[in-house]
Amino acid sequence: MGILSWLLLGLIAGFLASVAMKGGGFGVIGDIIVGIIGAFIGGFVFSLLTGRADPVNNFDLGSIFVAFVGACILIAILRVFSGRRRMI
User: Fold this and answer.
1) Count of domains for the chain
2) What whole-number distance in Å separates Cα of residue 58 and Cα of residue 35?
């Protein structure tokens, strides 16, 4: 994937994760960063679970899903360490 694909994938995954985790969002740049880091985290987790070497290899729904799950994991970790608690 090219750099533009990574940026777009990160933006989509970061935005969807911020909406799903009921946060205020991180802005465009923050969502891209959260989505790209989430793609690495999600790729690592899914490679451990499925045995696939590269779960984020194309710009498709599967890659967006993997990045979305990783971004949700990252947001949850950030909330734990920042002390920001949310009542459900």
Assistant:
1) 1
2) 15
- Kindly report the three-state secondary structure assignment for every residue of 28-49: HHHHHHHHHHHHHHHHHHHHHH
* pLDDT for residue 68: 92
pTM for this predicted structure? 0.82
Contact between 42 and 55 (Cβ < 8 Å)? yes
Q: Which domain holds residue 45?
A: 3-82
How many other CB atoms are there within 10 angstroms of residue 21's CB atom? Answer: 17
Q: Name the CA dihedral angle for 71, 75, 76, 78, rounded to a multiple of 10 degrees.
A: 130
> What does the pLDDT look like over 53-74, one tens digit per residue?
777 777 888 888 988 999 999 9
